[in-house]
Amino acid sequence: MYTPPVFKPDRAASLAFAEARGFGIACAWDGAKPVASALPFYLVYADDGTPRALFHVARHNPLVKLAGGRPWLLAINGADAYVSADWYVSPDQVPTWLYQAVHLTGPVRALSGQELAGHIDALSAKFENRLLPKRPWTSGKMTAARLDAMKKAIVGLEMMVEEVEGSFKLNQHKSETDFAAVAGALAAQRDAGAQEIAHLMRQVRPDVFATESNELEGSVP
């Protein structure tokens, strides 16, 4: 991943972003072309701190035959938004695109049948917890026959993450006036991605908006 230093998050921030998203595109090389699938995943850590990404695919997915070979790439994207050059205060600007993305790379192995059972429950628990106070779904709600058939139809996979790359391109290198102007323009858009990027921009450079907050507080009688 090409990442100018100003946009590069540290390893911990990149892994936290990947875990929070929990959805990405797994890509491998079959010797002639890339093979990819979009899928949910979760992260765990080995005793030595090495991250492991766990996910599964349909048994007939071409990716299954590529496990155990060359390293795979797991690409995780977050919010993104187009920026018009007209939104800057400074002249001679160009349009751009702001976004967050993390790439995890490493070898992949197939899980055993026993490991797959635990994987199914761990993966569903990750996302069911986001729906609280709804009572979480568990595989125990399925009949034994249906659960067994489902497990036979998929293959669990584990990536031992050897490389973590990230790019959080949020216009960090722009002047305060340009940064604030673009954040304001994005916040005014109807697109949810643009609004999310505007929110992230406020988080990454809160000092830019401190004066604005102080002025609002001072105007309250």
Q: What does it look like?
A:
The chain is an alpha+beta fold and 221 residues long. The protein has six helices and nine strands, in the order H-E-E-E-E-E-E-E-H-H-E-E-H-H-H. The strands form two sheets. It has a five-stranded antiparallel sheet. A hairpin with a 5-residue loop joins strand 3 (42-45) and strand 4 (51-58). The protein is elongated and about 65 Å long. The termini are far apart.
Task: Provide tags for this entry.
four-stranded antiparallel sheet; alpha+beta; 221 residues; 9 strands; five-stranded antiparallel sheet
Helix content range of the residues, please?
25-40%
Q: What share of the residues does DSSP label as strand, in percent?
A: 25-35%
Structural class: alpha+beta
Task: Round the mean pLDDT to the nearest integer and report it.
Answer: 94
Helix count equals 6
Short description:
With 221 residues, this protein is an alpha+beta fold. The chain has helices spanning 11-21, 113-128, 144-152, 176-187, 192-204, 210-219; strands at 23-29, 34-40, 42-45, 51-58, 72-83, 96-106, 108-110, 154-160, 163-169.
